[in-house]
From TrEMBL:
<keyword id="KW-0963">Cytoplasm</keyword>
<protein>
    <recommendedName>
        <fullName>Serine hydroxymethyltransferase</fullName>
        <ecNumber>2.1.2.1</ecNumber>
    </recommendedName>
</protein>
<comment type="pathway">
    <text>Amino-acid biosynthesis; glycine biosynthesis; glycine from L-serine: step 1/1.</text>
</comment>
<dbReference type="GO" id="GO:0019264">
    <property type="term" value="P:glycine biosynthetic process from serine"/>
</dbReference>
<dbReference type="GO" id="GO:0030170">
    <property type="term" value="F:pyridoxal phosphate binding"/>
</dbReference>
<feature type="binding site">
    <location>
        <position position="148"/>
    </location>
    <ligand>
        <name>(6S)-5,6,7,8-tetrahydrofolate</name>
    </ligand>
</feature>
<dbReference type="InterPro" id="IPR039429">
    <property type="entry name" value="SHMT-like_dom"/>
</dbReference>
<dbReference type="GO" id="GO:0004372">
    <property type="term" value="F:glycine hydroxymethyltransferase activity"/>
</dbReference>
<dbReference type="InterPro" id="IPR015421">
    <property type="entry name" value="PyrdxlP-dep_Trfase_major"/>
</dbReference>
<comment type="pathway">
    <text>One-carbon metabolism; tetrahydrofolate interconversion.</text>
</comment>
<dbReference type="GO" id="GO:0008168">
    <property type="term" value="F:methyltransferase activity"/>
</dbReference>
<comment type="similarity">
    <text>Belongs to the SHMT family.</text>
</comment>
<keyword id="KW-0808">Transferase</keyword>
<dbReference type="GO" id="GO:0035999">
    <property type="term" value="P:tetrahydrofolate interconversion"/>
</dbReference>
<dbReference type="InterPro" id="IPR019798">
    <property type="entry name" value="Ser_HO-MeTrfase_PLP_BS"/>
</dbReference>
<keyword id="KW-0489">Methyltransferase</keyword>
<feature type="binding site">
    <location>
        <begin position="152"/>
        <end position="154"/>
    </location>
    <ligand>
        <name>(6S)-5,6,7,8-tetrahydrofolate</name>
    </ligand>
</feature>
Length: 452
């Protein structure tokens, strides 16, 4: 840090402060974790200085022998970890991984009139009319993905993301009474809508998904089946989600982030059946710039770590902790979406406390409990204020907290939610007795001191 400080002390201070904040607050954001020192060190080094556009052994730059080694080792571990026939580890993030996958699916599935004619020509030789023909063929394709309020992600065809502009999207959701995916309704929608692609996966759904059923539906309507396992990749890697509940081998194409439950560096990856691999390999330069060799090195370390038996114990403990947290909240009268959890996250409905998600999120933060607000099914407060709080256990499980601590955390969360009074004039303002916030902060601090 002193080297950084000699150039710009404010950056050194922010880094040091971030470490301190992460040590001292209850990190319950479901998409966050603590990467190992090996992952962090593999990322902060001279590989960062190298350009290596292209694929392993076929680069557009000279001198890529070390990047080739790094990418090959990352691919080797990734394939072994998920028992996948093909892996692409270049995507810089989850969004990028999804873009690579969408392009691969479009290129594989969409019949472009006279495509052969285009293939034989250099792209810069196409006339404007030919370009228009190409664009028309790729536009307006259909996607069926999970709705945002049921826990889907923006990249699954929603307007603020480019996927919502690339695809005509229809959503599937959850059954009102169970809070779980309504497979019969999903099948009906798929039959009627006939999507080119069905996307499984989520950011805020607390239950297992039956991927075998989704594949069956995709086959019935002739769709390509993609799973975005960004959130639960660690549970797949750790063999908690197996059989029908693993995307492998049911999905044609699987995308992930590497930094959530998988506990690697910030980044993405794509896995595919062999028939799609050629298109996925074109991710760079189709939608990606030069690969981040330093991050691929850190992905290789994270995949190797996840292949250790201890990672399976970790993944199981994530779910055990999540269920303990759900039970601790339920017994204190807190209402949970779907009544519980099968995975790493719990979704609290804060409506019964008279609060919006925004108020609850800030009240918890003021008390040293870091969570995020989230929409819940049929949310009356919309995507900005919301009525839910999403909490997840991957990070605290990495620190070694267990079932007993989850019950204490449930008590802290309940204390804050029950002690917060909404301001009648605003969906963002609230009152929380500072003495309560201080007490919870202190208790959270003491709890974490046992898990440095
Ligand atoms: N897909 C899902 C399901 C996610 O939850 C997220 C992140 O929140 C992403 C994709 C995007 O990942 P990134 O932030 O790395 O682009």
């Amino acid at each position: 840090l002193e080297v950084v400080r000699s150039v710009e002390p404010r950056i050194a201070d922010a880094i040091a402060k971030e470490l301190n904040d992460q040590r001292e607050s209850l990190k319950l954001i479901a998409s966050e974790n603590y990467a190992s020192p090996a992952v962090l060190l593999a990322m902060g080094n001279w590989l960062s200085d190298k350009y290596a556009e292209g694929t392993i052994g076929r680069r557009f730059y000279a001198g890529c022998q070390n990047v080739d080694t790094v990418e090959s080792v990352a691919v080797e571990h990734a394939k072994a970890l998920f028992d996948a026939p093909y892996a692409y580890v270049q995507p810089h993030s989850g969004i990028d991984a999804n873009l690579v996958a969408y392009w691969a699916i479009l290129a594989d599935r969409v019949e472009v009139p006279h495509l052969k004619k285009f293939e034989k020509r250099q792209i810069n030789e196409l006339t404007d009319a030919e370009w228009a023909e190409l664009r028309q063929a790729f536009g307006n394709q259909r996607m069926l993905g999970m709705s945002l309020d049921a826990g889907g992600h923006l990249t699954h065809g929603f307007r603020p993301n480019i996927s919502g502009k690339m695809f005509d999207q229809r959503s599937y959701g959850v059954d009102r009474s169970t809070g779980q995916i309504d497979y019969a309704a999903l099948r009906e929608t798929a039959r009627e809508f006939k999507p080119l692609v069905i996307v499984g996966g989520y950011s805020a759904y607390p239950r297992k998904v039956n991927f075998a059923t989704l594949r069956e539906i995709a086959d019935e309507v002739g769709a390509t089946f993609m799973v975005d396992m960004a959130h639960f990749a660690g549970l797949v890697a750790g063999k908690v989600f197996t059989g029908d509940h693993s995307p492998f081998p049911h999905a044609h194409i699987v995308t992930t982030t590497t930094h959530k439950s998988l506990r690697g560096p910030r980044g993405g990856a794509v896995f595919a059946q062999p028939e799609l691999s050629g298109q996925v390999d074109r991710g760079c330069p189709m939608v990606l710039g030069g690969p981040l060799a330093h991050v691929m090195a850190a992905k290789a370390i994270a995949f190797a770590e996840a292949r250790q038996p201890s990672f399976q114990t970790y993944a199981q403990q994530i779910v055990t902790n999540s269920q303990a947290l759900a039970e601790g909240l339920t017994k204190r009268g807190v209402q949970l979406v779907s009544g519980g959890t099968d995975n790493h996250l719990v979704l609290i409905d804060v409506h019964p406390f008279g609060l919006t998600g925004r108020q609850a999120e800030q009240a918890l933060l003021d008390s040293g409990v870091v969570t995020n607000r989230n929409a819940i099914p049929q949310d009356p407060n919309g995507a900005w204020y919301t009525s839910g709080i999403r909490i997840g256990t991957p990070a605290l499980t990495s620190r070694g907290l267990g079932v007993a601590e989850m019950d204490q955390i449930a008590e802290l969360i309940h204390t804050v939610l029950a002690g917060t009074t909404p301001d009648a004039t605003s969906k963002a303002k609230f009152h929380l007795d500072p003495a309560v916030a201080d007490r919870v902060h202190k208790q959270a601090h003491e709890l974490l001191a046992g898990f440095p």
